[in-house]
Specification:
Among the domains are: 128 residues, no CATH class; 459 residues, 7 Propeller (Methylamine Dehydrogenase, Chain H). It is 31% helix and 20% strand. The protein is built from 29 helices and 42 strands. The strands form eleven sheets. It has a five-stranded mixed sheet, with no helix packed on it. Strands 8-7-6-5-38 form a five-stranded mixed sheet, with no helix packed on it. It has a five-stranded antiparallel sheet with strand order 22-21-20-19-37. Helix 1 packs antiparallel against helix 2 and helix 14 packs antiparallel against helix 15. The N terminus is likely disordered.
Amino acid sequence: MNVSKATSILCQRTGIVVVLTVANLLFVISIGCDSTSSKGDGDSPSQLSDRPQFANAEGSLKIATRKGNWTEAYQAAEYLATNSPNGIDGLDPNVLVLMSQAAFQKDHKEQSANWLVTACGNERYANAGRVRQAMIALIGIGKFHEGISFLEQAIAQNPDQNQNRRWLFDFYIGSENRVPALRHGQALVRARQIDVELLQSMSNTERRFLDSAPLSQMVDRNPDDKRPLLGEAKKSFDQSKFDQAIATLQQITESHPKYFPAQALLGQSLSAAKRFDSIRHWASQQSPGIEDYPGYWLSLGDWADHQGQPKAALRAYIEAANCKDPDVVQIWTRMATLMVKLDSDESKNPSDEDLITADFIDAVNRRALGLGRLQQLKNRFTKTGGISQAIVIDLAKSLEHLGRLWEAEAWASIATTLPEDESVDVLGYRKSLVAKLQQDTPWQLDDEQPDFEPLRTALPLPEIESVVSAPSYSEPGLVGNLRLGQAARTVVSDRFQLEDEAQSRGLTFWGRTSETLDQPGIMLYQTLGCGGGTIDFDLDGNSDLYLVAAGGTPPNRDSEANELFRNLGGEFVACGNQCLADDRGFGQGVAIGDVNEDGFPDVLVLNYGPNRLFVNQGDGTFYESDKLLPPEPDDEWSSSAAIADLDGDGLNDIVIVNYCDTLGPVTVGCPVTGMDFMRSCSPMKFAARDDRFLHANGDGTFVDVSSKWNATLESPGRGLGIVAGDLDGQPGVEVFIANDMTANHYWGIASRSDVADQPIFSETAMLRGLAGDDRGIPMGSMGIATADIDRDGDLDLYVTNFSKEINTLHMQAASGIWQDSTSQAGLSDTTLPLVAFGTEAIDLDNDGILELVVTNGHVDLFSRGDEKALYQQPTQIFQQDRLGHFVLANVPSIGRYFANPHVGRSLWTLDANRDGLIDFAVTHQTEPTALIINQSPSQGDWIRLSLKGTRSSRDAVGSTVRITTPDQTLYSYRISGDGYQCSNDPVLHVGLGSVANQSVDVQVSWPDGQEENFVRVPINQESILVQGR
């Protein structure tokens, strides 16, 4: 191996890992050792005490080096270092290289590196290859950051050393110091030194994907420098292990208080852990220079918002947006959410309206959405193999819309190197970009940025710098009486007793997507499983069940038949064929609702292929016709749906959630290295499909109004879960859709004045804090649980995600504004390794406090890297205490079903035996559907409420119920969709705890805004509440 080959390895994007793991070897090779080299361990003190005098030390050094006499060579080198007339800085660089080689061979590695660094400095860093050799030498002794400073000096004097600049960029990115990295990345782009890895790295602000172990090795080599631990801290931060991140960052900042990337991440970690008192102390310790890092301003903004200083918080977020790292989506989501909150604040000053205008809010939202779209396109480009010209041109256009022409042109240039796609005019588009670029074209065009200057002038900075003392970092923060930042504890619970009684009660059904789900070779279309729902189709008061099947080949109708089970006093009897409701499409999910307002619940079956609407005729049979729904293509892949009155006309409409586009997922697999079969591809390999909004015509048929209602997007999601109801506490119905690997969606009518004519919907998940996690990063989202989880009178959402992504608890902080409260509720660590699908918020013991139930299971059997795949995974139940903190129940003690892992998919509620305890059903990939009967000892009273609209739609979806007892006020919500591929029992069940009286007062806020009181409603039974009666 020679120097050029070593250098080529180091110049790869993954070079930082290679450098840090084999630096010593490369250094020996790069300065030229041979087979005669001594392997001495260094001279002993006695050997060096009697150093010879050299008449010609330089000549002796050269001769000894050629002969491989490293002891003599090193002695000559030491003599030169101490006796040269002009000192070491006056030595010839080539001589210094020989001195460095001799020192290295005698195991004086630090001296060797220092002499090589001096050689570079003596020639003003003109020898680019020698500069890289010196960098390797510094890394070899653990002086990684000294090496970065050394490279900075080299680039400052030789700006055209593009290879060295690229090394510097990679080192900054790999060590999580993006601010200086971007300066060098931009210079490389302007110099046309581009590749995909460079462009990807420049805008990756999401998670750390590089291995942190090589950086940690730097600390082993140089224990006094803890800065390389930043990579490990970032990894902990990305996994929501905030306490662990804080502890690591403390190690760094205690010894390097002016290492700003670590300080910025420390502030963000303290904020994420809600240690706001510690943020006060942290902020008071900062030095000039930290203001260039967005994390600093984000932390101050979070602190100010927590202190009730929203204007100061907004100013801090604006300062973050003006930093030199423009791709941090969290900045824009924070800003957007806060502006909506300020705009809706009734106590705001009239002058505020002149500052925070609707146009300004819209500009910030567009920026946030644009950045989100950019990340999604990059992810899709990677997941599809990095060869699609069409995706790259879309990516370039996204950058152009963001006002970043240099990057747009760079990506367009990359597109010219990819396999040709005749549908895309790559050369023409690139030419149009080149025409817009001049030497003085700024990196970011101001015209595409919101104008922040009026707000920067008018808004105050957070008043935090005057605080000089506060508790230490190690003291956990408190909110009320809730201790935050703790992982969910595992507790043995004797409160819950739950058993699978499906078989004994006659519920025998296995809705699987393939006969070979326990074997390798599962395709993407076979991974989602099948769902089901609760329906009282004969109106006898018993919860019947509709279950979906698949197993054929989409879009054919060759799957196993769906089944309808009638509940006869707690025993289930199959009657799907008899009732004419046994569809044979490739079933995915089901939505239950009254589509024709006749009082009988109907069934919408979601298929990969044409969906089916079964209309309940009231005589125990259903009617199905392809004329009820608007025409749909055979390749539409629908997963879930909600049935609700979206426009307020009293008739239920339908929202259908779609996943990937076309039939590609049926036929296209992805190869497995070393295997002779294919596996499931990432959904990002396939284009997303628009969801569909269907409006009721009033005659039982529906028309697609997605475009007419403005309910389409430039970047559709890959939808899996949906809920519809009064989500924001304002009259009317909103829709939340959980998307897989793309930003979630939140739809609402933009203006209520439009309802009488045509409603105009807008998508505002980013503005409302629901697009992803706390940083606005999209997750692999699937299931949704809705309830007033924290009992503060508004609706919260719990969203399940893929493995290595914690499930997200969105608490509603203000009307229509949600905050990621996962970590402070103790729900982080326990969900990280699992793939979570269905979930519901259920009061299992009627004590008035909700539990979270989650069914888990991987998508296939394959291991990923060194990690063994866990196909079957445990079902989880999270118990909540009265302070809002969750603990993980020790599920094996709950019942036999919970003692074993499962490959769970859909989960929904019912009361199968009408005993006043909520039961639930779970579908699986590798076993029949489970019917989990709740046998827990009841801890209190309960009430069941069936709402019937008259002026509102019959189902009354969008109603909010407030129940008042002598001790508390509880809220419940009439929701449709209910999460992942399912429909819950439409009867609202509320655990009350112990109630002294035998009745409670109930207030219903109907979907049309009418509020109605029902007094002395009896408890421990079901009541029907009819609007206006």
